[in-house]
Amino acid sequence: MSTTVQKPATTPIPVQLSAPEFEAFILPHLSMPKRGPRCKLGYHRVFNLILWVLYTGMQWKCLPIPQDAQGKPAIHYTTIYKVFAKWADDGSLWQAFVASVRHLAAEKQLDLTVLHGDGTNTVAKKGAMGLATRATNIRRVRKLLPSSTIMATSSRLSLWLLSMRPTWSCSRKA
């Protein structure tokens, strides 16, 4: 009995872009610094690390940073976060998203049946507005209204995800 793996009806969310894909579809929409040193890793690799954090939901400090020839980290995770924050603040990531949706629509590859919104990265606390308006005892409030955080996970696996698995451990410095 032979078993064949069926091709999925839709392609998964990309968690890694090749250099030609990045240069063709993403780079034209990103703002680049006008002066100062160039990025050591290159913006293609930085963008892939940003995608990795957004896809997995891991903390920035747990990012698997590539190492240089001496075994030291090639870049600090805070630098990657700063690049992400700059692109998010100036609208570069939004422009790249809109351009990619336009491209998919023009190529008749935009499947609207699989699009969905997800707001699980926003922390909401029950009763926060009512507590902010009047003076209350903080200790009593913490006992009465425990906050909950919702975490989203994905069951999709990719080859890159499997190759990153050994580096997922994150230790907190004392």
Number of helices: 7
Shape: globular
Task: Please outline the major beta sheet.
Answer: none
Strand content: under 5%
Number of strands: 0
Q: Topology as H/E string?
A: HHHHHHH
- Cα distance, first to last residue? 56 Å
Q: Structural class per helix/strand content?
A: mainly alpha
Could you name the ranges where pLDDT drops below 50 across 5 or more consecutive residues? 147-169
**Fraction in helix:** 25-40%
Oligomer designation: single chain
Kindly report the average pLDDT value: 74
Structural commentary:
- The protein is mainly alpha-helical and about 170 residues long.
- The chain contains seven helices and no strands.
- α2 packs across α3 (about 75-90).
- About 5% of the residues are buried.
- Mean pLDDT is about 75; it is low at about 145-170.
SSE layout and pairing:
Layout: H1 19-26, H2 43-56, H3 77-89, H4 92-106, H5 128-133, H6 138-144, H7 159-164
Helix pairs in contact: 2-3
List keywords for this structure.
single chain, 174 residues, mainly alpha
Summarize the structure.
40% of the residues lie in helices and 0% in strands. The protein contains seven helices and no strands. The protein is globular, with a radius of gyration of 21 Å.
